[in-house]
UniProtKB/TrEMBL annotation, chain A:
Belongs to the ABC transporter superfamily. Residues 15-250, 267-511 form the ABC transporter domain. The keyword ATP-binding applies. The keyword Nucleotidyltransferase does not apply. Transmembrane segments: none annotated. This is Sugar ABC transporter ATP-binding protein. SUPFAM superfamilies: P-loop containing nucleoside triphosphate hydrolases. PANTHER family: CARBOHYDRATE TRANSPORT ATP-BINDING PROTEIN MG119-RELATED (PTHR43790), D-ALLOSE IMPORT ATP-BINDING PROTEIN ALSA-RELATED (PTHR43790:SF3). Coiled coil: none annotated. Keywords: ATP-binding, Cell membrane, Membrane, Nucleotide-binding, Repeat, Sugar transport, Translocase, Transport. Pfam families: ABC_tran. It comes from Shinella lacus. GO terms for molecular function: ATP binding.
TrEMBL record, chain B:
Keywords: Cell inner membrane, Cell membrane, Membrane, Transmembrane, Transmembrane helix, Transport. Pfam families: BPD_transp_2. It is a multi-pass membrane protein. CDD domains: TM_PBP1_transp_AraH_like. Its main location: membrane. This is ABC transporter permease.
Length: 513, 346
């Protein structure tokens, strides 16, 4: 590709949006935005949930068409009728929501639609070789022939990244590529990004992990309510600048709620063991015990693959534990169905909102009320007004930015979809809530809101257990921080622990953040 | 199912609603407008088409497919398919015919003539049992719906043939001295001029509409068809819902079998062959997605009427049976084409 031959000016604008606006019905997702992408550099787009980041990226990559305004490529106005046209011009995108075919293997996903052909058909051997190279570059130990559905979320995200890399495009858009990655994986990705920019590839990066993004970016652009509110070069700004422009005030993630008596033990897990689903013989959760009191907030930190998801799923009745007991308020609920766990007040907010959290064919309201149908059913029939009340309350309490309960779920921005999943479970009025990476894909404002909400509910006696792979989130509302490593709890800390201590206990190399 | 963000395109289509309101309206009500178009065209071509008596006759034909289609809708909303309904219909007719002929109990040497309502209840029960077999195979033994119901299609048809030796039960009228008359009531009688079969369809349609729109079960069904994993994690008893839809589909098929055999006053073992396909067509024309989670009773009823009125209309204007088949096929493909436009899958 000519852009990569070295005869370019670093920093010159390769692709730009000029006065781009986009309306979905009467929702104005973008209101006349100017945005430049610089050659061989990283431009990061910051903004709250629903600010219009993904929309702008979809326009630049031909996935959706703007209502007005134009796109300029190498100084020439251009119209992309489809994403494949944009791909032909060297622009590719990693979508916020995964777009892999779960039933197909890694190799076929990476080369989907661009199969390497020989005279006799697809050259699987060559595709496999290239896949291995990509995986080696991303320092990931994934076999090209594994079906994607057998990979954990973070690995799926790696495959998604590998697919975008395999195109060899000169402009690469990454919409929250790291939301499910571990710190080490992010580190590797950044190495790859530096390598790409060194070769003249231009990168657009979107992330709600602000500090992380600051490590890599050259330019920072802040979007707010569909308009560009600030632009600066990296050398002129710091974290505080971004937060100020994104949400107005400085936000922190809160502190452990105090000033009330914690109640009795609400949830007690005794020696729970979950065998490896692939049957490899070892246990992903290995005789783990834990008890949480009413009103207490417990954070479980761990790397991807530490067994956090399996632990929570086994407790909530989703996975079968091979040994151990789950006791909810003194009552043994081991092996109970998910439905009766919810009835008894033990709920799980799953990690993967697309696969486990949302029903795409239903509206926002119906998704929100799905777990509490009983609450608005009298005798046989559901009550429309009661349901509307419940939905309205959930939308208000979790601060979901939506056109109303009747909007299709696909019309919400990623972070707001995440809030729907959390709101759905809080609407059941639980006693114990387990949240698997609740902050995945939500902005710091929303994250602070979610944590505040959880802290508030804890004050009223809710027992909260949440997992995270971001150390910063451990040091927020949690009264107790547990570090999980290879299916066991490797350390337990109070709220006054340091990031370094937590990371050391997780088996992670401490790097200079 | 892939996780492709097809949502974007779909939402974009919907987003343009306010601009092209009229086109959108035409599109939303496509089955309705198709029905109107069919009525207008055939009325223009034949003076006999647009008469009350012809409408009632056509409606009683539709009743059979309509009942099957209601059951099929429930199954399709769940993301499944029920190929066994045609055979279940046939088997139900044969069993009803068998019961009407009297059941001989050799041990005590008496012949029992169950009264008509007992026959009706037993036949419905039979439909439920066939549906339950489907449901258990699919929900618990994890046989794909297509295969499980295909197997049951053959088994049910085979049993019907075995029971009758390939012959047909005639004279289902019953005899007054045996106290089992009234079977033809379903097929021939009218209430306020409307054939009973049509009223039965109406009752089933209304009940099913309420079931879907106003009960917890309806919500469970839509959610487990849309995303079974998410529904299960929200406490929806997905397995029970699955079995229930096949049971309900079996009952609908049995009722359709009763209506058909009483319309004909005979019950043959091959009745209802390929009706399952007509039922699927009605559901699809009515705008339901075969992937589950989307569809309404009203749409399905319109779909059933489109198919019924179209094929009867072609008969009335004297088009050959071969062309009828071609037309029906074209309508089905067009409907699916429009659906895929609507749901934006590429
Ligand atoms: N297909 C659509 N139909 C209707 N509204 C939409 C659609 N896509 C996006 N929107 C709306 O446009 C706005 C911007 O959404 P967008 O997805 O660009 O946000 P975002 O900045 O990427 O947020 P997040 O950080 O949560 O991913 C939101 O208010 C969203 O509800
Ligand atoms: Mg987004």
């Amino acid at each position: 590709m000519s852009a990569l031959d070295g005869s370019y000016q670093k920093g010159e604008v390769v692709l730009a949006a000029r006065n781009v606006a986009k309306a979905y019905g009467n929702i104005h997702a973008l209101k006349g935005v100017n945005f430049d992408i610089h050659r061989g550099q990283v431009t990061t787009l910051f903004g709250e949930n629903g600010a219009g980041k993904s929309t702008l990226m979809k326009i630049l990559s031909g996935v959706v068409q703007p209502t007005s305004g134009e796109i300029v490529l190498d100084g020439e106005p251009i119209v992309f009728a489809s994403s494949s046209q944009a791909r032909d011009r060297g622009i590719s995108i990693i979508h916020q929501e995964l777009s892999l075919a779960p039933n197909m293997n890694v190799r076929d996903n990476i080369f989907m639609g661009r199969e390497i052909m020989t005279a006799t058909g697809v050259d699987f051997a060559e595709e496999e070789r290239q896949t291995r190279l990509l995986m080696a570059e991303l320092e990931e130990n994934i076999d090209p022939l594994t079906p994607v559905e057998d990979l954990r979320l973070g690995q799926q995200q790696i495959v998604e990244i590998a697919r975008a890399l395999s195109v060899n495009s000169r402009i690469l858009i990454m919409d929250e590529p790291t939301s499910a990655l571990s710190a080490t994986e992010v580190e590797v990705l950044f190495k790859v990004i530096r390598d790409l920019t060194g070769r003249g590839v231009s990168i657009v990066y979107i992330s709600h992990h602000l500090e992380e993004a600051l490590q890599i970016t050259h330019h920072a652009v802040v979007l707010r309510d569909g308009a560009m509110t600030a632009y600066a070069e990296r050398k002129d700004i710091d974290l505080e600048w971004i937060v100020r422009h994104m949400v107005g005030d400085n936000f922190d993630l809160g502190s452990p709620p105090t000033g009330y008596e914690k109640g009795d033990v609400a949830l007690s897990i005794e020696g729970i063991t979950v065998p490896d689903p692939a049957g490899a013989g070892y246990s992903v959760v290995d005789g783990l015990s834990l008890s949480v009191r009413a009103g207490e907030i417990v954070c479980i930190y761990g790397l991807m693959g530490a067994g956090r998801t399996e632990l929570l799923e086994a407790v909530a009745g989703r996975l079968k534990a091979s040994a151990g007991k789950v006791v909810l308020k003194g009552r043994d609920v081991t092996g109970q169905s998910i439905a009766s766990c919810i009835r008894d007040g033990l709920v799980l907010v799953p990690e993967d909102r697309q696969r486990d959290g949302l029903v795409q064919t239903m509206t926002v309201g119906r998704n929100l009320s799905l777990a509490s149908i009983g609450a608005f059913t009298r005798r046989l029939f559901t009550s429309t007004s009661r349901e509307a009340g419940l939905v309205g309350e959930a939308i208000r309490k979790v601060h979901i930015k939506t056109d109303g309960g009747g909007a299709p779920i696909g019309s919400l921005s990623g972070g707001n979809q995440q809030k729907v999943v959390i709101g759905k479970m809080l609407a059941t009025d639980p006693e114990v809530i387990l949240l698997d990476e609740p902050s995945r894909g939500i902005d710091i404002g929303a994250k602070a809101e979610v944590f505040k909400l959880l802290a508030e509910r804890a004050r009223q006696g809710l027992a909260v257990v949440y997992t995270t792979s971001e150390v910063g989130e451990c040091l927020s509302i949690a009264h107790r921080i547990l570090v999980m490593r290879r299916g066991r709890i490797s350390a337990e800390f109070g709220p006054d622990v340091t990031k370094e201590q937590i990371m050391a206990a997780s088996g992670e190399a401490v790097h200079a953040h | 199912m892939s996780v492709t963000p097809a949502i974007d395109t779909k939402a974009a289509v919907r987003g343009g609603k306010r601009k092209k309101g009229f086109v959108e309206l035409l599109f939303e009500g496509r089955a309705f407008f198709a029905l109107i178009a069919i009525i207008v065209v055939f009325s223009a071509m034949s003076p006999n088409y647009l008469t009350v008596s012809n409408f009632l006759i056509m409606a009683s034909h539709v009743a059979i497919f309509g009942l099957l289609a209601i059951g099929m809708l429930l199954v399709i909303l769940n993301g499944g398919i029920d190929l066994s309904v045609g055979s279940t219909l046939g088997l139900a007719g044969v069993v009803a015919g068998f019961l009407m002929q009297g059941v001989t109990i050799p041990q005590i040497g008496v012949i029992l003539y169950p009264s008509v309502w007992v026959v009706v209840v037993l036949t419905c029960l039979l439909g439920a049992v066939v549906g339950a077999v489907n449901g258990v195979l699919i929900a618990y033994l994890r046989v794909p719906a297509f295969v499980a119901t295909l197997g049951v299609l053959y088994v049910a048809r085979g049993i019907a043939l075995l029971m009758t030796n390939g012959l047909t039960y005639n004279n289902l009228g019953g005899r007054p001295e045996l106290g089992n008359t009234g079977f033809d009531w379903l097929g021939f009688n009218r209430l306020a001029g409307v054939p009973i079969g049509v009223l039965v369809l109406l009752v089933f349609a209304v009940a099913c509409h309420i079931l879907l729109a106003r009960t917890a079960f309806g919500r469970w069904l839509y959610s487990s068809g849309g995303n079974e994993r998410a529904a299960e994690l929200s406490g929806v008893p997905v397995k029970r819902v699955k079995i229930a839809v096949y049971v309900l589909s079996g009952i609908c098929a049995a009722v359709a079998g009763l209506v058909l055999s009483s319309q004909l006053t005979s019950a043959g073992p091959t009745a209802g062959t390929t009706y399952e396909l007509t039922a699927i067509a009605a559901v699809v024309i009515g705008g339901a997605a075969l992937t589950g989670g989307r569809g309404t009773v009203i749409g399905t009823m319109l779909g059933a009427f489109v198919i019924g009125f179209l094929s009867d209309g072609l008969v009335i204007i004297g088009v050959s049976a071969y062309w009828q088949t071609v037309f029906t096929g074209a309508v089905i493909v067009t409907a699916v084409l429009l659906n895929s436009l609507k749901y934006g899958r590429r």
